[in-house]
Amino acid sequence: MKKFICTVLCAAMVLAFGGCGKKKEAVKEKTDSAINVTVKKVERKTIENTVTYTGEIKASESTSVSAKASGLAKAVYKELGDYVSAGETLVIIDDTDYRNAVNSAQAAVNSAQAAYNSVVSGSAQQTKQQLETQLSAAKIEYNNAKTNYENQKVLYDGGAVSKTAYDAAVTRLDNAKLSLDSAQKNYDLTINVVLKESAESAKANLNSAQVALASARSNLSNTVVKAPISGYISARNANRGQMISPGVEIFSIKATNTVEAEINVTESVIPNVKAGAGASVSIKSAEIENISGTITTVSPTKNAQTGMYSVRVSINNEKGKIKDGMFADVTLTLSKSADALVIPAEAVLEDSSGTRYVYVAEGEKARRTDIAEGIVTDEYIEVAKGVSEGDSIVVSGKEYLSEKNNAIRIVK
I need a labelling partner for 211 at 20 to 30 A (CA). Which of 248, 270, 354, 400 fits? Predict the structure, then answer.
């Protein structure tokens, strides 16, 4: 009997002690309220606010080619879709009439040149020499008559010669003076007026003939129609034997060394888009990823139908992989901050008042801190105020934290 009682007591004690152990373990689990969290350090890096739009590739330059001369097309060298380099011949127009015009103009120049040469160095020179001879003779006679007069006057005053001899000397001097004045006047008039005007007239005729020749040569050169830019033939309206008329389009060329992606952006974005700024362009159909482009045109007005603003981005296409009409994804940088304090976007919380905040891990506790945001992206947020470089920011588990329930256990 005693043995049975002892056995029961022992069993009761074992159950009692076992029950106490389980109670203590349950209490420990209940009082250990630390929340498992993961953290990331506040770091410095460059952060950008970007947007991406899809647009269409268009030729950056398109030009219409027409002839300046008229006539039958003797040869047409390019077909629709062909690539052509700037300066390459597209069409040759029959030049028979234009060559004849050049020959006639050249003959007119030769004739005018001969006339001009005759005026300045031929008959004009002979006339000039004759006038110079006459003027020189008149000067000699005048000087002789003057000397004779002076001698006769001295003799007459001394009573050595008669008045008749003296009067003859005076008459000779007067006649010599008249002859000299006449010769000088004739020389001046002929040299300074007649010959000068003749030379100027001959020179004007020569200039006019030379201008006509240059025009005829220009017209002849216009019978060869060349490509003004490099690119692909997008339209062809000329055939051999066809009459070509000036000003009528015979080819259209789209430049391809550079192309443009045209996108439409919203009014919230357009204030941050500036001509000359860079852009990143991807064109899947051409297997091109993230090449650099430059914003060339920003429309100042909104499209009435779409309510958006047109933006063109220039792209280098020297290899010719990008084709007109392809679709491109254009990424624009709206704002950028270098060496900024950033945290993961997923770490940020917002309370009922709209205040944005994070939890900073400090030992085994988490401290709430309100933040002021800068640039916001899907992955990172720039923090202008509220945290410091190197702080550990709670990323996962943050939803279970509060000012009272802030015990944490950092896990990896």
Answer: 248
pLDDT digits (tens, 9 = 90+) for 246-282: 999 999 998 888 899 999 999 999 999 999 999 999 9
Partners of 225 in beta bridges: 91
Question: Can you tell me the distance from the alpha carbon of 44 to that of 255, in angstroms, rounded to the nearest whole number?
Answer: 44
The one-letter code for the residue type at 244 is I
The token pair at 57 is 């590739």
| Strands 408-410 and 35-41, bridge-based pairing | parallel
Euclidean distance between CA atoms 191 and 212, whole angstroms: 30
410: which residues sit within 8 A by CB, 6+ positions away?
37, 38, 39, 361, 392
**Strand, coil or helix: what is 249?**
strand
CA distance 91 to 332: 43
Q: Residue 252 is encoded by which pair of tokens? A: 């259209």
Check if the beta carbon of residue 225 is closer than 8 Å to that of residue 245: no
Relative orientation angle of helices 123-157 and 163-189, to the nearest 10 degrees: 160
Range scoring the smallest mean pLDDT among 124-138, 184-198, 226-240, 251-265: 184-198
| pTM (two decimals) | 0.52
- In tens, the pLDDT along 306-345 reads 999 999 999 998 888 898 899 999 999 988 899 999 999 9
Cα separations in angstroms, 86 against 49, 65, 67, 117, 255: 41, 12, 16, 43, 10
Give pLDDT tens digits for 207-261.
999 999 999 999 999 999 999 988 889 899 999 999 999 999 999 998 888 899 9
DSSP string covering 56-121: EEEES-EEEEE-SS-EEEEEE---TT-EE-TT-EEEEE--HHHHHHHHHHHHHHHHHHHHHHHHHH
Of 394, 391, 388, nearest in space to 406 by CA: 394
CB 101 within 8 A of CB 216: yes
